[in-house]
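**User:**
My hope is that you can spare some time for a protein that puzzles me. This is the protein in question:
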Amino acid sequence: MTGLALSPGIDAIAHPLTAVFGGRQFARLWHFVATLLLVGFFAAHLVMVATTGVIDNMRSMITGYERT
């Protein structure tokens, strides 16, 4: 939604969407914060997979069974 609020074309036809985020500058700020949170989420999960064994995790995700 923040990405749409940043678009000049969407701003022209749906200005209330941009207004909800406090204008284009604040939409840009919310977009940046959301991106950082999403990247942090993915990075944390990649670290967890890497520390618990990539091969075993991939096998479990593909087959649905965990080797004990």
Notes: The chain has one domain: 2-63. The chain has a mean pLDDT of 91. The chain has five helices and no strands. The two ends are 43 Å apart (CA to CA).
